[in-house]
Amino acid sequence: MEEKKRYSRMLDKTKPPTEEEFYEFCAQRKSLLYDCDHFLMSFDNVSKCLRFPYGNNYGWSYKYSRKNKLICEIFAEVEAFTVMIRLSNQQIDSIYGLVTAQTQELIDNKYPCSDGGWLHYRILNQDDLMNIKKLIQIKLVHNK
Fold first, then answer.
1. Which residues contact residue 1 at a Cβ distance below 8 angstroms, ignoring those fewer than 6 apart?
2. Would you state the pLDDT for residue 1?
3. DSSP 8-state class, residue 98
4. SS3 content of the chain, % helix, strand, coil (to 5)
């Protein structure tokens, strides 16, 4: 069996993964993914659905939303997962001083989009998870 390249994604559009397969794909980072999922689902009116968005290079993800407004997408990767989140400049300004230098650099290099931009945050450890939770919380507070 061919070894999977680190950080590669679930790209077989013809085979939707089960929830268990999605988590298992992240290998040793699956407990971080469970934690992130539990955190997101602890907010009122948050739903999630499995989908294959944005073309063939992004792969399978769980879309988290509240009242049909996107909160974030989580993409399973070998040995990691990436949270894709769009924040407004106001949301970024309110959290910037409360996150690590690594997260600030990620914010500084965001993909611009009207008022704010998209962040692709690869989660590898507890510090990453703590910082993405802060970003998600800011998104949810300003997105009721």
1. none
2. 35
3. G
4. 40, 25, 35
| Cα–Cα distance, 60 to 39 (Å, whole number) | 20
Indicate the pairing of strand 61-66 with strand 46-51. Answer: antiparallel
- Rounded CA-CA distance 144/68 in Å is 11
Q: Angle 30-26-111 (CA atoms, 0-180°, nearest 5)?
A: 105
Name the nearest CA neighbour of 74 among 24, 6, 23: 23
pTM of the model: 0.93
User: Sorting pLDDT into bands at 50, 70 and 90, what band is 2?
Assistant: very low
Q: Nearest 5°: CA angle at 74, between 71 and 77? A: 165
Helix/strand/coil for 97: helix
**Residue found under tokens 């909160």:** 71
Report pLDDT for 114: 86
Contacts of 75 (CB under 8 A, 6+ apart): 9, 10, 58, 59, 60, 61, 81, 82, 84
Bigger pLDDT: 114 vs 117: 117
